[in-house]
Design brief:
8-stranded antiparallel β-barrel, 50% strand, alpha+beta, Lipocalin, 167 residues
């Protein structure tokens, strides 16, 4: 019985260490922090190409929050779901070296009511100094029942914003 407890304790310690290592590599580079992100979505031919901005926070525990331009692109299948987006929440993991995988959801609203969701799956790569990143995302615009209304992709460029260090 005691050996089972030791094995369980050992497994928990390995999992905790793995999570810590997943967020910081041997060079100390991490995506944790606050970022200004410029997003350029791919749009159908003839549609205007908007540049969207957001402020994103990657927490040390792997959680993610962002606030962005609220107006959604003027793409008819997107506008059929809703016209604005809310605050996004999700999580990220390190997939290797300076590369991270991020998934987040944001509510889509029409006249103040949630009518769907935007799901974004993004792969980002930090620069060597860790103060910028580039990413490529798959963006799914979902109806409230989570059925897919429109799918596109886009590019993101993040620049770390200066914030005070926290212990």
């Amino acid at each position: 019985m005691q050996s089972l407890k030791l094995v369980s304790l050992g497994a928990m310690l390995v999992m905790a260490a793995s999570l810590s290592m997943a967020q910081n590599d041997s060079n100390g580079l991490t995506v944790a922090g606050v970022w200004r992100v410029r997003v350029t979505p791919e749009v159908p031919p003839g549609a205007p190409v908007p540049t969207l901005f957001e402020v994103a926070m990657y927490s040390k525990d792997g959680s993610f929050t962002s606030s962005a331009d609220t107006a959604l692109p003027p793409i008819p299948p997107v506008q059929a779901i809703g016209t604005q987006r809310g605050v996004a929440v999700g999580n990220y993991i390190r997939v290797g070296g300076r590369e991270f995988r991020l998934t987040f959801y944001a509510p889509i609203l029409n006249n103040g009511s949630v009518t769907g969701f935007m799901k974004v799956t993004d792969t980002i790569v930090l620069t060597a100094d860790g103060n910028e990143y580039d990413g490529h995302a798959l963006v799914e615009f979902l109806y409230a029942d989570l059925s897919v209304g429109f799918v596109t992709s886009g590019r993101a460029h993040g620049s770390r914003l200066p914030t005070p260090e926290h212990p």
